[in-house]
Amino acid sequence: MFFSSINGTNKKKIILLPHNNPDGDALGSSLALLFYFRKLKHDVDLISPTEYSEFFQWLPGIKDIIVFSEKTESIIKKKIINSDYIFFIDFNNLSRIKKLREFILSSKAKKILIDHHPFPFQFDFMFFDPKVAATSILIFKFISKMNFLEKIDKKIATCLYVGLMTDTGFFRFPSVTSETHFIAGKLIEKGININQIYNHLQEKYNINKLKLLSKALKKLKILKKFRTAYTSISSSELRNYSYKQGYTEGIVTYGLGIKNIVFSVFFFEENEKYPIKISFRSKGNFDVNMFARKHFGGGGHKNASGGLLEKSLSESIEYFLNIIPNYYNNLIFSI
């Protein structure tokens, strides 16, 4: 019934919502859906709860995103409340969209989830599969179920391919399957420029970002007994490097490049007010999704998750260090 209603000739008011600090998969999935629904002649708005990284400025349609701020708040509120459908893309918990949550709860719109993270909240319609490598795959399948794969053009394919590349670590993560490559192949057939996309995604460094990375690596600590590495960046350190959104992206992965390390953690104090943002990455069977959910009010995937703590940076690290001994066996025997 849902597919037939949105496939119909009646113009619908649609809101697309990625999560806070949207990554490549959230942006790629949302922008692809924006282009697709426009082809169906619907009235569509893509609203981001926060600013996105400047490293995605080259993406098709990126300038069409409405970023939530004091200036746009009243406009966004009106659009959300008056919408027919609201799509939640690449997240499954309303805590991931900050102040927009209260507007959502005031809207009578049908709420549709398209996501691949485990343990979702309940929505009116659920297009959900935690086994797929990226939400971009679900957008491809969503369009397929509506029998409109021919409407995937070069712009839509580019956005979806970016989602695939970024959420699979350039097709390196364990979540990658033959289906992942099959869909990637279908997107390539649309004429996308793989080399150009790859170069854009690699050209994400400037001198301040590299200096910030250098600072984080100098502070890297190894808990050899627990096969764990962790580091942090404080708000005072950010001020020294003209911080912009996206500068700390990827820092957490460096710890996993160390021999015998299976768990890497990054603590990020974006400003002097709480909370502290924490990123978790793991190898093998150590489940950082469950770890983040149990201790840090977060979640994500088995090998890539995040969380928050309403503590100072030093208190957050101390809290973490007190927890780690409880996972000795899980970490030592992780394969």
Number of domains: 2
CATH hierarchy, class of the largest domain: Alpha Beta
Strand content: 15-25%
H/E element sequence: HEHEEHEHEEHHHHHEEHEEHEEHH
Spell out the key features of this protein.
Diaminopimelate Epimerase, Chain A, domain 1; 6-stranded mixed beta sheet; 2 domains; alpha/beta; single chain; 335 residues; inorganic pyrophosphatase (n-terminal core)
Structure report:
- The protein is an alpha/beta fold and 335 residues long.
- It has 2 domains: 2-202, inorganic pyrophosphatase (n-terminal core) (Alpha-Beta Complex), CATH 3.90.1640.10; 207-332, Roll (Diaminopimelate Epimerase, Chain A, domain 1), CATH 3.10.310.
- Helix content is 37%, strand content 17%.
- It is built from 13 helices and 12 strands.
- The protein has helices spanning 2-7, 24-39, 73-81, 100-106, 135-145, 154-167, 178-188, 194-202, 207-218, 235-239, 288-296, 313-323, 328-332, and strands at 13-17, 43-48, 66-67, 85-89, 110-115, 125-128, 221-223, 228-233, 263-268, 276-282, 299-300, 304-309.
- The chain has a 6-stranded parallel sheet, sandwiched between helices.
- Helix 2 (24-39) runs parallel beside helix 5.
- The longest helix has 16 residues, at 24-39.
- The protein is globular, with a radius of gyration of 20 Å.
- It starts with a helix and ends with a helix.
Summarize the structure.
The protein is of the alpha/beta class. 37% of the residues lie in helices and 17% in strands. β8, α10 (235-239) and β9 (263-268) form a beta-alpha-beta unit.
